[in-house]
UniProtKB/TrEMBL annotation:
Keywords annotated in UniProt: Hydrolase, Metal-binding, Transferase, Zinc
Source superkingdom: Bacteria
Reactions it catalyzes: adenosine + phosphate = alpha-D-ribose 1-phosphate + adenine; S-methyl-5'-thioadenosine + phosphate = 5-(methylsulfanyl)-alpha-D-ribose 1-phosphate + adenine; inosine + phosphate = alpha-D-ribose 1-phosphate + hypoxanthine; adenosine + H2O + H(+) = inosine + NH4(+)
GO MF, one annotated term: hydrolase activity
Lineage of producing organism: Bacteria, Pseudomonadati, Pseudomonadota, Gammaproteobacteria, environmental samples
Protein name: Uncharacterized conserved protein
Length: 226
């Protein structure tokens, strides 16, 4: 991974096939642009054909899989030069693909999305069974992701045991989102290209965090396309 600057906007470049970029805090911040401005910037520098991101609601609707919806927490494409963005501010941006085929998913994976089964929904779809690789993007690390008992009960009510992903420190519960996500991917035999992910809470100089900044927080945008 390396940092690049595109017309004043800082980006972390993750991969070339597919192209994966993560917007970073900048004086000219990519996340503040309109969709048309984002598309124009990416067309100028990467010759993409189109760009889209979506209203997200911590659900399981996937653009390209589900029918028309007011919000989508994921996308699927099988076309080249169609760029998409997943917006996060502590949740996991999860990119899934097959480098030998034009199969690309992006998922907004907070705890509600993971609980609702958005990963399984993508990977069990007709296109999803072709997925071979994954990138787990920047998100809040377990030592900063404190959760309450009602959080744990939400999983228990669906008969999902998350004990192995919970640590207790000073009487408080902390959840490891990455490990929970990894477990899901491993079941499908998917190769995760990064062994660790930057913590959005700790990286104040480069990443936005809702837990840290509350209403002042903007969004990190994870971009991807073939």
């Amino acid at each position: 991974m390396k940092e690049i600057i595109i017309d004043g906007s800082r980006m972390m470049q993750v991969s070339d096939n597919p192209k994966i970029l993560v917007s970073l805090k900048s004086k000219i911040d990519f996340s503040t642009f309109s969709n048309s401005a984002k598309e124009a910037l990416l067309k100028k520098h990467f010759s993409i054909h189109s760009y889209r991101d979506f209203e997200q609601s911590h659900g399981d609707k996937i653009f390209g899989i589900d029918k028309v919806s007011d919000s989508f927490d994921g996308f699927y494409t099988n076309k080249k030069k169609q760029a998409f963005g997943i917006k996060t501010a502590d949740c996991i941006p999860l990119i899934l693909w097959n480098p030998e085929k034009i199969v690309l998913f992006g998922l907004h994976c907070g705890w509600r999305g993971l609980l609702s089964g958005i990963v399984e929904k993508a990977l069990s779809s007709n296109a999803g069974i072709e997925v071979t690789h994954a990138f787990i993007g920047p998100h809040i690390s377990h030592k900063h992701f404190e959760v309450k008992n009602d959080f744990i009960e939400a999983f228990t009510s669906k008969r999902i045991n998350i004990d192995r992903f919970i640590t207790i420190s000073d009487g408080k519960n902390y959840m490891n989102l990455r490990s929970f996500c990894e477990q899901k991917l491993t079941k499908y035999g998917i190769k995760i290209i990064n062994e660790s992910s930057p913590c959005s809470y700790e990286k104040n100089d480069s990443l936005f965090s809702w837990r840290r900044d509350k209403e002042k927080s903007l969004r990190n945008v994870c971009l991807s396309w073939f």
